[in-house]
Design brief:
- The protein is mostly helical.
- It folds into two domains: about 100 residues, Orthogonal Bundle (Rna Polymerase Sigma Factor, Chain: A); about 70 residues, Winged helix-like DNA-binding domain superfamily/Winged helix DNA-binding domain (Arc Repressor Mutant, subunit A), CATH 1.10.10.10.
- α2 crosses α4 and α6 runs antiparallel to α7.
- The longest helix is centred in the first third of the chain and has 23 residues.
- It starts with a helix and ends with a helix.
């Protein structure tokens, strides 16, 4: 997000590349039309990037949920506009699709899981394991940036993160008995 706020076009492309498939799924489930899904996906990224640049997204760890909400809202607004323009039968059951937003219990469960994951990462013995896992999975930093900061090639990074994930899983299973 810092890179986007600073005007880094590559960061914007990374965001689009990272979220485009998920956004297409969310929107596609609501509108059921490929070309409309593509148009609404572009609107979603336009709105998201504007909000990030304006500083309206204050919690980077919630970026995925924020983007998902924008996509859902854009798609629902489209359906409402079409419903006003067309006969309700032509739109079908678009409003009957289950709300993809997690309910309160799911939100609580996600917070608890996130806290457990952070705790286990914090207990890893190797500093580089902690740093790579936190930066890549929690802070969602770009792989190339992490490689540059740590002096790793892409292949070395893959090995490091693979070993770190293995150690994380072993520690997690040791602490909690199941994954």
């Amino acid at each position: 997000m810092r890179r986007i706020i600073a005007g880094d076009a590559a960061a914007e492309e990374d965001l689009v590349r990272r979220y485009k498939d998920g956004i297409a799924i969310i929107i596609g489930r609501i509108v059921h039309n490929q070309s409309v899904t593509e148009d609404l996906s572009q609107d979603t990224f336009r709105i998201t990037l504007e909000k990030i640049r304006d500083g309206d997204v204050r919690e980077p760890e919630r970026l995925s949920g924020f983007i998902s909400s924008v996509a859902r809202n854009v798609a629902i607004e489209y359906v409402r506009r079409m419903r006003r323009l067309m006969n309700q039968e032509e739109i079908g059951n678009a409003e009957q699709i289950r709300d993809p937003q997690p309910d309160q219990l799911e939100q609580l469960w996600r917070k608890e899981r996130a806290a457990i994951v952070r705790q286990v990462i914090g207990e890893l013995k190797v500093e580089r394991d902690r740093e790579v896992l936190l930066r890549y999975y929690i802070a969602e930093e770009d792989k190339e940036r992490i490689c540059a900061d740590l002096g790793l090639t892409s292949l070395q990074f893959n090995s490091v993160i693979s070993r770190a994930l293995k150690r994380f899983k072993e520690l997690y299973l040791k602490r909690f008995g199941k994954f």
